[in-house]
Amino acid sequence: MGELKLMKGNEAIAEAAIHCGCDGYFGYPITPQSEIMETLMVEKPWETTGMVVLQAESEVASINMLYGGAACGKKVMTSSSSPGISLMLEGISYLAGAELPCLLVNVVRGGPGLGTIQPSQADYYQTTKGGGHGDYQLIALAPASVQEMYDFVDLGFELAFKYRNPAIILSDGVIGQMMEKVIVSDVKPRWTDAEIQKISGSWATTGKTKDRARHIATSLDLEAEKQEIHNHKLQAKYREIENKEVRFEEFQTKDAEYLLVAYGSSARICQKAVEICRSKGIKAGLLRPITVWPYPTKRVAELAHQVKGMLSVEMSAGQMVTDVRLAVSGKVPVSHFGRYGGVIPSPGEVVVALEKFINGGN
Amino acid sequence: MTEEIIIAGFGGQGVLSMGKILAYSGVMQNQEVSWMPSYGPEMRGGTANVTVIVSDERISSPIIHEFDTAIILNQQSLDKFEKTVKPGGLLLFDPNGITHPPKRNDIKVYVIEGAEEAARMGNPKTFNMIIMGAFLKLKPVIKTENVEKGLKKSLPERHHKLIPMNLDAVRVGMEKVKEFQV
Amino acid sequence: MSEIQIQDIIKKENFVYGKTKILTDNVMHYCPGCSHGVTHKLVAEVIEELDIQEKTIGVSPVGCSVLAYNYIDIDWQQAAHGRAPALATATKRLMPDHYVFTYQGDGDLASIGAAEILHACNRGENITVIFVNNAIYGMTGGQMAPTTLIGMPTATSPYGRQAALHGYPLKITELIAQLPGVAYVTRQSVHTPAAVRKAKKAIKKGFENQARKIGTSFIEIVSTCSSGWKISPVESNRWMEEHMFKFYPLGDLKDAEKDNEEDYRKFIE
Q1: Which residues on neighbouring strands pair with residue A167, listed in sequence order?
Q2: Which of A204, C74, C115, C200 is deepest in the core (most CB within 10 A)?
Q3: Where are the beta strands (DSSP E) in A155-240?
């Protein structure tokens, strides 16, 4: 077992990057996630593991540095917060189109526009429904604790290389700024070119040797028919991910009559709300999607046969609730409760909202 | 045991670091902890607050709006957080700069003259440890030896020579805290 | 006397010129008279002469040369519009013993990618930049570029570029030359055999500089675009000499070796 440390979610991301053998971090400062790059710059991993850390001139440059690094088959990552991720979307679409593995971290803050620096979950659509142009998907992990911030860096890279697809950690200002206990893993050595080839095949632009054709990292095919074939391949990959990589956690669902559905920091608030409900005799339970894409659609659909209603709790005006509704397909009433623009709901507010929902309000 | 605490005051009073030392001390005695700061514009010169939860069990929500204890270090924070103390809970405050003292009589109210004691100790930086000592006297959720361990963990090594002085401050806080008559 | 047979002429001892094997056999999509073909060839020849095919990564832009990877037989990355220097930055930093170059047009480098090129050069990334400046957007059909000359008609400046309406042509190469991170800045062309030889020397030096780790090498190739300019290839060369060279004069703008750049850099450090 590794060392036990108390750290912020943002610090956990940085420590995990170094420990899991990340090759490069490229980023641009933005609140509430600047501690990620600050921690890396203090730790100076280029002197220990050889990891490259660079402050880019913009988020646009960061994401395109990721494209270059990922094309070399390296484990590269960036982090930002909502407005910065908006700037990166073009590059994210290119990365997905060119099937380049990499890790993104979004410590979400309130929007739209410059919005606020306080926590929010209003980037759910941006993360799971595209955001950038074209038909693509990101593998999206939603941590609900500082330990998960740490663990999902390694997991994100693992999934990204397994499927040659960008993965994203969808966090928020609560998880980024709070401190909790973290069990820190031992340092894994960075992958060699040969190991990368063994894990995900021979495709990286590491220099054309005599024994192979040149490797080209590109999302371009001007011929529509060929581009359609490429899209078929992408879609087949996305279906495979949907079949194999759904992750979720349940809390008190066994006998639940009403289900809260929440991810990330909202799930923590909802867990407390469930405790309060149970003490009041309300049989509430919680389903926490860990992957918000692929979404635990099947499990939500199953629970629709058991419960009398579902309340999606998000720090947004109601985005994930659309996925709950799709899964439930009208079997039971589904509603949404949220505070947004940077406001965090209290567990008590969630209980009141659920009671109102049970009593036939919305 | 679960203790849910809000510490609130001015930026620069050591609110966040006191919370961090408390949390680290909790870790040292194998408890679950969470430390959730208010962050953002209020950090720059205005008010600062941090929610610390220390518990024997897994902590569900790090965000709470009602507290077992409120540690209050300025008037704005008193105005904001007096009403968030659970009935029967504890409010501990430093009277320095307080013009409208606490009024609730369904909670326990204690006072510690932290700023004054710190000045007497000749080091204003001991202020937050005096406050912490006062809190630990009233709610001994952390053992003193674990506070020392927590200080060691949360302070960079070059500051370890300051630990004895900080522990003295904790003791001063424990001695000087007294009940406040609402 | 027997007639001379073709086999008698094609002999090793008579060999004076051949296509480098670093160029593929794909037929280039460039228009007749375009400078890209020659510039591609020069890059390929330099890669062959330096024997660095296995260690070279090219970054292609968005623009006419987006498909450069079809013609030069090395590993390539195809970048989003303007972002090639960001890709090259990461590639070079992650694989510092490789040779990394971007190949960019004027719209890509000097307009949408102005921030990326300035900052990559300012950081002194050990990369080579090949900047093909034909003062127009070729691929999208002849729109005004940041380098379009005053008075020059394009699809989006149909009455000629006017400073009041469109702003001034941007001498990005002169800007780049001001940056301490940059080791070598030169402006060349490929419109005559002599110019081709000089341009090749410059490109070679740009690649060699990477091994010496002295900062960015930036090579502008002032180019023609007969399709975009809507004149014949021959007229294009003439027009380039008369107008382009006047505003974008050929020659070295900076050479750290010669200009004691090291002293300057030490000074600012």
Answers
A1: A103, A139
A2: C74
A3: 166-172, 179-184, 216-217
Count the neighbouring beta carbons within 10 Å of the beta carbon of residue C16.
Answer: 4
**In chain B, % of residues over pLDDT 90:** 86
Q: pLDDT value at position A314? A: 98
Q: How far apart are CA A29 and CA A243, in angstroms?
A: 36
Phi, psi of A22 (to 5 degrees): -65, 140
Contact assessment for residue C250 and residue C240, using Cβ atoms and an 8 Å cutoff: no
Give the ipTM: 0.94
Q: Give the gap in angstroms from C-alpha A232 to the nearest C-alpha of chain C.
A: 21
Provide the number of structural domains found in chain A. Answer: 2
Contact (CB<8Å) A265/B60: no
Stretches where chain C sits below pLDDT 70 are 1, 260-269
Q: Quick one: which of B168, C90, C158, C230 has its CA closest to A73?
A: C90
Q: List, for residues A32-51, the tens digit of each pLDDT value.
A: 999 999 999 999 999 999 99
What does the pLDDT look like over B113-166, one tens digit per residue?
999 999 999 999 899 999 999 999 999 999 999 999 999 988 889 999 999 999
What value does the CA radius of gyration of chain C take, rounded to a whole number of Å? Answer: 19
DSSP C205-225: HHHHHHHHT-SEEEEEEE---
- Give the number of other Cβ atoms within 10 Å of residue A245's Cβ: 16
Partner-chain contact B153 A6, CB within 8 Å: yes
Kindly indicate the confidence band of residue A362, based on its pLDDT and cuts at 50, 70 and 90.
Answer: low
Mean per-residue pLDDT, A109-133: 95
Maximum Cα interatomic distance, chain C, rounded to a whole number of Å: 77
* SS3 call for B160: helix
Domain that holds residue A326: 248-358
Q: Under an 8 A CB cutoff, do A214 and C69 touch?
A: yes
In total, how many domains does chain B have?
1
For chain A, give the percent of residues with pLDDT over 70. 99
Residue in this structure with the two tokens 């440390």, named with its chain if needed? A5
What domain range includes position C199?
A: 24-136+145-268
List of chain C residues whose C-beta atoms are within 8 Å of the C-beta of residue A56? 86, 119
Residues A141 and A36 in one domain: yes
Number of structural domains (chain C) is: 1
pLDDT band at A360 (very low <50, low <70, confident <90, very high): confident
Provide the CATH number for the domain around residue B67. Answer: 3.40.920.10
Q: Are residues A9 and A83 in the same domain?
A: yes
* B23 vs A contacts (CB less than 8 Å): 6, 179
Neighbour count for residue C265 (Cβ, 10 Å): 16
Domain span holding position B79: 2-179
Longest Cα–Cα distance of chain A, Å, equals 72
Contact check, Cβ <8 Å, A67/C75: no
CATH of the domain at A329: 3.40.50.920
**Are residue A71 and residue A151 in the same domain, yes or no?**
yes
